[in-house]
Write a structure and sequence with these properties.
The complex is a heterodimer of chains A (306) and B (257). Chain A has 306 residues and is α+β, with helices and mostly antiparallel strands. Chain A is built from 12 helices and 9 strands. In chain A, strand 3 and strand 4 form a beta hairpin. In chain A, helix 1 runs antiparallel to helix 2 and helix 7 crosses helix 8. Chain B contains 11 helices and 2 strands. In chain B, helix 3 packs antiparallel against helix 4. Chain B is globular and about 55 Å long. Chain B starts with a helix and ends with a helix. The chains are: A alpha+beta (306), B mainly alpha (257). At the A-B interface, helix 6, helix 7, strand 3, strand 4 and strand 5 of A face helix 3, helix 9, helix 10 and helix 11 of B.
């Protein structure tokens, strides 16, 4: 802090100090390959050790990605690259919306890719770049038994706030380039606002809906579909209670697409409700990950199958 | 045949509804799209449920042995294709893999060659033709097989014809093995297909572009030469770094912040 204060009081001295300090600061900044390695190893360690994430808790996984991975991505650069020439035609407001929606889409995709990770070995390749380079490719290879290693290349650019990823290539497929045709097709047909709408609709499909949209009745059976997370558990609880009072005896979970521990809490709450009314309640098509969570919490014997 | 005709008609009808501007790499898009949706239906009702069941019923350890077994058989012609492409060192490595894995690795169920430093490669006749200079030709979706192009389609014919499993007798055993290999392959792709579903706005386009990028990368064994940057963005398929450097240079002015 002292150099900054001296800069304010004596500009010349301060400038001299800053010049003297900057090479030092640069030396302390992590090189891009080291950054990728550290972040990857940390995230892999966290997800393999976290029993809730292992059991399929997507909300927690997304939280982890938000905290650990996202700070190292430059989403506006990624969105600009994915749009190509159309980016220049967008207004600042449109650019902001596009970046937000694209970011949501990429985070979800990234979460799915990470959820599929099952302790494959990682091979961090030495960086082939000059120390003065500001645009480098960091290569990691995923080694998997009985198959060719899958190369993952991170294109990274040096910015004022450190090295940032602006494209990821998996097995030679550039993520950003792969969206370009799709995006431009939509822009050509319905403009940039059309693309924003399209992306938002895509993202919403994977967002938790409200109870009344997600519960369907077939006689004494109620079917829950879509993602069940903390975000919509409350509204599902109320909606489900209404159906329970109306004679539901079986809850079918075969169409639940995504879940976290909130689903378990929800089932137990419904069960308690049914018991207090002395009505039978059973569950069918319990997702495997839910069983795992239930075992983890030691409540698996409480869930009656039907 | 009737199915094919129906698909073609459906494709023609769809063609009227879709964009006027067509991707130059995919002039047969309407027909391709209808074959794609046929494959998709087949996948949803047959392949995916079977593969999901297989993944649930068979322990991971055994699935790995199955994958290794078929991977080992595949190494024979991966080697042949490396020789055809003049990559003798790689070809010798592939055949060494086959020799070690077939013997010490007990008919290939243990991939000990990888531990010995012989890495598995990915080669096929389509890549060989590409290496020889054959152009990809228009993008093509084959029934059941899926994404391809004219060159890779012909290459696939050669792959199919030279498949060592063809020699298996009796034919029940042969189709049993072919079927098991299909199920194993589909099971290995379950995660990928779920991710595709989440990532793509238009799965057909996303998969097509990924296929074309992937094949180009494979033909050059992960080191494709830079592509010329087309002025028109319709056929844009940027390869780093030429395109991206240009784009990122434009970038700072246009960032929202």
């Amino acid at each position: 802090m002292t150099p900054i204060r001296s800069l304010a009081s004596a500009a010349l001295l301060g400038a001299a100090l800053l010049v003297a300090l900057s090479p030092l600061a640069r030396a302390q900044e992590l090189p891009p390959d080291q950054l990728v390695k550290n972040v990857t190893l940390e995230v892999v360690e966290l997800i393999t050790k976290d029993r809730e994430i292992q059991a399929g808790d997507r909300a927690k996984l997304v939280q982890l990605i938000d905290a650990k991975v996202l700070p190292h991505f430059n989403f506006s650069a990624m969105t600009a690259l994915a749009l190509g020439h159309s980016w220049n035609k967008a207004t600042p407001e449109q650019k902001k919306r596009l970046t937000e929606e694209f970011r949501t889409l990429l985070v979800r995709t990234y979460a799915s890719a990470l959820a599929a990770y099952s302790e494959q070995k990682l091979d961090f390749r030495p960086l082939r770049a000059k120390p003065t380079d500001t645009d480098v490719t960091v290569q990691v290879r995923v080694l998997q038994a009985g198959a060719q290693p899958v190369p993952i290349d991170y294109s990274m650019e040096k910015t004022a706030s450190g090295w940032k990823v602006y494209d990821v290539m998996v097995g030679g497929v550039s993520l950003v380039a792969n969206y370009r045709t799709e995006f431009n097709n939509v822009v050509r047909e319905s403009g940039i606002d059309g693309l924003i709408k399209n992306l938002a609709a895509k993202n919403r499909r994977f967002e938790p809906g409200r109870g009344e949209e997600m519960i369907r009745r077939e006689g004494p059976r109620m079917i829950v579909s879509g993602p069940v997370t903390l975000a919509n558990a409350g509204s599902l609880l109320e909606e489900g209670r209404r159906h329970l009072a109306d004679g539901v005896q079986t809850v079918d979970l075969g169409e639940v697409s995504e879940m976290d521990s909130a689903l378990l809490a929800l089932l137990l709450a419904w069960l308690r409700d049914a018991r207090s009314r002395e009505r039978p309640l059973g569950f069918s098509n319990l997702p495997e990950s839910l069983r795992t969570i239930a075992r983890l919490y030691g409540v698996d014997s409480l869930l009656p199958a039907s | 045949m009737r199915l094919f005709l129906a698909a073609a008609l459906a494709g023609a009808a769809m063609g009227c509804a879709s964009t006027a501007e067509r991707d130059p790499r995919d002039p047969w898009e309407p027909l391709n799209r209808s074959i794609y949706s046929f494959n998709d239906t087949l996948d949803a009702y047959v392949a995916r449920p079977v593969a999901t069941g297989y993944q649930k019923a068979v322990p991971g350890e055994i699935r790995l042995r199955v994958r290794n077994f078929f991977g080992n058989i595949g190494d024979v012609f991966i080697g042949v294709n490396n020789f055809l492409q003049g990559k003798f060192e790689d070809g010798v490595s592939d055949w060494a893999r086959f020799a070690f894995n077939t013997t010490i690795g007990l008919l290939g169920i243990h991939d000990i060659a990888t531990d010995m430093g012989y890495e598995k490669h990915n080669e096929d006749f389509g890549q060989t033709f590409g290496r020889w200079g054959a152009a990809a030709g228009p993008y093509l979706v084959l029934p059941i097989v899926g994404s391809s192009d004219v060159r890779d389609g012909i290459g696939w014919g050669f792959d199919f014809y030279t498949d060592p499993l063809n020699e298996t007798k009796p034919f029940q055993a042969r189709w049993g093995l072919v079927g098991l290999r299909l199920i194993q392959t589909r099971a290995d792709l379950l995660d990928a297909s779920r991710i595709l579903e989440e990532a793509a706005l238009d799965r057909y386009v996303f998969q097509r572009d990924a296929y074309l990028q992937r094949r180009r990368n494979l033909i050059y064994d992960g080191r494709p030469p830079r592509e010329k940057e087309p002025d028109d963005d319709a056929g844009d398929k940027p390869q780093k770094p030429a395109t991206e450097e240009k784009e990122t240079r434009d970038d700072p002015d246009q960032k929202p912040r």
